[in-house]
Design goal:
- The chain is α+β, with helices and mostly antiparallel strands.
- 22% of the residues lie in helices and 32% in strands.
- The chain contains 4 helices and 5 strands; from the N terminus they run βααααββββ.
- The protein has a 5-stranded antiparallel sheet, with helices on one face.
- β4 (131-141) and β5 (147-158) form a beta hairpin.
- The longest helix is centred in the middle third of the chain and has 16 residues, at 72-87.
- It starts with 27 loop residues before the first strand and ends in a 6-residue tail after the last strand.
Length: 164
């Protein structure tokens, strides 16, 4: 997979990373974008999801997808990369503690995607004072504004005091 193209946005500096206290319900983040190629789709599929509709255009035309479609796991991996590089500036990294994922539309060669994320819930830990859980919904959208993935994730987010 080629590096994501963050559309001119520089990688986020560590000083701009957010802690639990910095987050608020309704807060939104938008990542840079990435153009998807047939070669990327096929390369990922060959390594991790070797099904005909991810590997071969002719075979894919005869399936439910009607053409080459990216693996949902490729879409998830690409979403993670976009969020890490330019989308979710969480201090300490994007650490998952569970979630739900869906793929309402297939990701296709030629699509250009970005991720829009929103903070849905913030719950400080009662047993670990250095952290909490933030529930974030990340929607991966193509160039037509169609949602190709919805990820509702519970993330471990550290508090500022934990770095002192």
């Amino acid at each position: 997979m080629e590096p994501a193209n963050p559309s001119g946005t520089a990688r986020q500096a560590s000083s701009n990373r957010l802690f639990l206290e910095d987050l608020s319900i309704g807060q939104r983040f938008i990542s840079g974008s990435h153009a998807v190629s047939a070669e990327e789709i096929k390369s990922f599929a060959a390594a991790y999801d070797p099904q005909p509709f991810h590997l071969d255009e002719a075979a894919a035309k005869r399936t439910l997808f009607g053409g080459l479609a990216a693996s949902g796991w490729y879409t998830a991996a690409l979403t993670m990369r976009l969020n890490v590089e330019t989308g979710l500036p969480i201090a300490g990294g994007i650490i998952g503690a569970g979630g739900e994922i869906s793929w309402p539309k297939p990701l296709r060669p030629g699509d250009s995607v970005h991720v829009e994320s929103e903070v849905l819930e913030i719950v400080p830990s009662r047993s670990r004072s250095d952290r909490g859980i933030a529930t974030i919904e990340s929607r991966t959208l193509n160039q037509r504004g169609e949602t190709v993935q919805i990820l509702k994730a519970k993330l471990v987010v550290f508090r500022k005091e934990s770095t002192r």
